[in-house]
Specification:
This protein is mainly beta. It is globular. A 5-stranded mixed beta barrel has the order 1-2-3-5-4.
């Protein structure tokens, strides 16, 4: 899946708060990929990097997988095709949520 082009449906846009955990603020867009079922039985979740305004939908390249060692879920990291990030840069943008898990970033 790394390198694949996918479309993310955004259900938690940049600037919003988690629906259950009101102290989690989304500083990036976050959503899911329709039709791809993740290990948790739900549609695959994805963080969107490189888009600095709230969007409803975004098509981009999968550049990393966030593997949660202490959870069944994995998250994909999607960004515009012409942008790249290091593991450290990815972590800085997703730690608002991933800090609560033991996660590793998998890249090619």
């Amino acid at each position: 899946m790394i390198g694949d082009i996918v479309t993310v449906i955004v259900d938690r846009p940049l600037g919003s708060y988690h629906p259950e955990y009101k102290d989690i603020y989304y500083s990036i867009n976050y959503g899911y990929i329709e039709g791809i079922i993740a290990p948790d039985g739900e549609e695959q979740d994805a963080y969107i990097l490189g888009v600095n305004e709230p969007v409803e939908k975004f098509t981009g390249k999968v550049i990393a997988i966030i593997h949660r060692c202490d959870d069944i879920e994995e998250k994909w990291v999607v960004c515009p095709e012409n942008i790249s990030y290091t593991k450290e840069e990815i972590w800085e943008q997703i730690k608002f949520q991933e800090q609560f898990f033991r996660s590793e970033i998998i890249m090619q």
